Amino acid sequence: MKIVLMLAVLGLALIAFVAEWLPVDLTALLVAIVLVLLGLVTPEEGISGFGNSATITVMAMFILSAGITRTGVLQIVRDGLLRWGGKHISRQIFVMGGIVGPITAFINNTAVVAIFLPIVEAWCKQRQISVSKLLIPLSYSTILGGMLTVIGTSTNILASGLSEQLGYGEFSLFAFTPVGLTTFSIGLLYLSIVAPHFLPERKLSNSNSIEQNYGLQDYISEMVIAPGSSAIGQTLRESEIQRKFDLSVLEIIHNGIHFSQPLADKTLSAGDILIVRGSRENLLNIKDERGIEILADIKFNQQSVEDEISSGEEKVAEILILSNSRLIGSTLKDLRFRQRYNATILAIRRGQELIRDRLGKVPLRFGDLLLVQGPKDSFIGLQTTRELLVLEERNVENIRQNKARIALAIVLGVVILAAFKIQPILVSSLLGVVLMVLTGCLKPGEIYGAIRWDIIFLLAGLIPLGIAMNNSGTTQWLADRLVEACGNLSGYWILTLFYIATNLLTEILSNNASVVLMIPVAVGVAQSLNLNPIAFMFAVTFAASNSYLTPIGYQTNTMVYGPGGYKFIDFARAGILLNLILTFLAPWTIVQIYGL
Fold first, then answer.
1. Is the pLDDT of residue 588 over 70?
2. What count of other Cβ atoms lies within 10 Å of the Cβ of residue 81?
3. Angle of helix 491-508 relative to helix 511-528, nearest 10 degrees?
4. Which of 24, 100, 219, 590 has its CA 20 to 30 A from that of 234?
């Protein structure tokens, strides 16, 4: 009965993860609660994920990554990218991957992509290259680089914790390195030589790219307050133009003087020109009801719309919603975005989908790209938040460059202590966190914003699931069924089948969930067939992270989805051959190095 109950919970959990009825971290917590209520784990086991060494280590690594990014260490690396990149796309990908891959072995890959996204965008603009030629390779390079060490990704750290829980001890810091170097080298050569033939020129890199990519010419208009308009003498807020007609007033021109945000308390006069964002339908409605005339786009024919709405103290930029953002799930109206950030959203790009109507009512998602217009000072504030990423290089004044060497030394110290087994990675990473604060690389309050709480709660909720599978006997039952089905195959092919199954599971779940579900079963099969359990754990871990088929299979893929202007199919087109190569290469390399 316990096995039947466990399989039912597991099935419902998989459906909930795929359907995304709730955020994945909340789904994982709900699963843990259900397991406790059904008696499949004790209350202590149900909350054990919060005190698990893997969870705490992942938390510490997020903070150490923030210390590196906050002190500008990665900005220093960009000089190599600009110096050695050259003009040929293959060389550019090779240099970029050769730089970001090894960095990702020690720094969280989402942090690396967040730093390099605006650098690559600026580089593409200088070289007149389409960013869609480089952003998928950027994401894939960080995925490959994350497998060079145990601390490269949260998945690796979780796998190490599961290994200890199953009685095989934690993995050493460089346990994955021999296999990781092989897959990284082959992957980088593939990205440099083969992938350029499959990568689209989806997004323009010329000066008018924002205007063309977002269709601003058709969506930004000039209106004039006609004599006799009912809006004369009212403030913009009192006129209710923006609320009632779903328009955003970006600028008011009064007697030749340009007034920018905040505009709510500006009094409207006859002859005032309003530069607005809105659909033609809404513009016609306001014309009929309020006596406001639509001007011919005279100025916009002489200069780009982007130049017009980013003149003087105004600017336009793209902003990416990061995975730890509190904006996710909320609408712009709920957030009072214009009031909070003193900036206006012109459009939302979600992959290939471009949203321009009723922006205030659209729930925001991770990976959404917001086209934002506002005063230049507002973007300084937006650059400092860890929930949003402005796709332009950070201002130097926002970075503690004088602390860069100290932050780098702290991370190197953490690595050395763990590599030579002087201290466990849990202890050395927590020591590094304390030193980051004591040396001023991070302020005490910044450590909480540095942590990806969604990942922490996801891990804390998933770990009891693995415990319940073992307690109920479900893991052994599944292993026995697989042994019956695969017992006649060679060890290499069984290893490869586990790689394929985990890889496909990662595409629909998360890499962490795949590792929790598959490692115990893989170890059970290995034990039953007298094969090497370490080899099976390594195969599952590599398969869980090597996700190249969809923009949702791995978080860095989601991060480049909108900025690259990609279609969903672009990831499969560029990554399917790499997936196939690694499917056979990784298990073969594991067998050669660690044996079966």
1. yes
2. 18
3. 160
4. 219
